Amino acid sequence: xxxxxxxxxxxxxxxxxxxxxxxxxxxxxxxxxxxxxxxxxxxxxxxxxxxxxxxxxxxxxxxxxxxxxxxxxxxxxxxxxxxxxxxxxxxxxxxxxxxxxxxxxxxxxxxxxxxxxxxxxxxxxxxxxxxxxxxxxxxxxxxxxxxxxxxxxxxxxxxxxxxxxxxxxxxxxxxxxxxxxxxxxxxxxxxxxxxxxxxxxxxxxxxxxxxxxxxxxxxxxxxxxxxxxxxxxxxxxxxxxxxxxxxxxxxxxxxxxxxxxxxxxxxxxxxxxxxxxxxxxxxxxxxxxxxxxxxxxxxxxxxxxxxxxxxxxxxxxxxxxxxxxxxxxxxxxxxxxxxxxxxxxxxxxxxxxxxxxxxxxxxxxxxxxxxxxxxxxxxxxxxxxxxxxxxxxxxxxxxxxxxxxxxxxxxxxxxxxxxxxxxxxxxxxxxxxxxxxxxxxxxxxxxxxxxxxxxxxxxxxxxxxxx
Length: 467
Prior knowledge:
Low-confidence stretches: 1-5
Radius of gyration: 24 Å
Largest sheet: 5 strands, mixed
Strand order of the largest sheet: 2-1-3-5-4
Number of domains: 2
Helix content: 55-70%
Shape: globular
Distance between the termini: 75 Å
Strand content: 5-15%
Oligomer: single chain
Number of helices: 23
């Protein structure tokens, strides 16, 4: 049975899946060109500031390693190649995310091959991960955890590879430090990584070398990535991390964040754990061979449950290990029972996973279309928009147009404060229908409906122009 890294890279099924999912992500990026929640807009705006001079100040909780080091170069390249409009440049900025999402499939295959030693199981793990809706959908966007997951997988592979034990640990620690720089929450994977360093060593000396190497690599890597970038950006090493702690744990400046109950991830388990995968997980619940994968899955679930602000996308780093556990279970099922049972459940898992991609249909395509139309009108100098990130905030308006953000849903007093002097006001049609007082305020300020923008399942937007 082939289980080396070379045999994995020669797997035609692997590259077929990579080709299919890469094509899907490219299509998703083009078709669903809106935004999902604001984090994606922040990454893009900072990259546009760094590369093209957009007038934008990032939130102080953000370490700018990802947008400045990994995304901005693609915008500069696009500009050199003659792309000057925002829409194609935004698509250009998704290229590194799509590329790393495809790389992650290869890395999951390689890690499963090393941990399970079974080519069929590695293929199953790769397929479960590749078609899971979280990496498949978010891999077509500029959300950061596609990138941090790549570094996390590299860290796990480093500890599973050949070479000196201390060197393995150092490489793993540096890779995890880069994941930490992309999103600080990924630091929670240091505990599973140290578990792998301890459990995978042949003796105490090797265990000690790998553990110390991983810790040292993480500290040095953090100093060179997060620390250095923060020092250059905010004037103080790890200043953004301190600000993030104040927001996430203390609640300072977190008024715009939704706080969810501790059991949020368990209550929504079937949104990230496909039901057909459960029998496979039960079969390997007590398997020592896949214990590291269990640690990589359980630790983030526990840690993230203690943080008030929760999103399903935060689990992206754990999905590769869920896929490996599922593949290990299907391998056991295939040996104990008829292979048709494992194949059927695997197929049902893939189908149920892909269905989750429909979440992309709820992106803000209508709002972005409205922003592009308003920005194309040279007479428009000030806009007031509800949920500014849905329009791309300053991305499409550039430095010429002042963007005033309105809360969602807005109140009559919000309009009274924000729309004086504006040339256009854009609100969700749903909010206007639920609060007739909004239309009355707009009429009083001499605004009239100019156009309604609709796009699939995204929220319809009504643009008002001054009479």
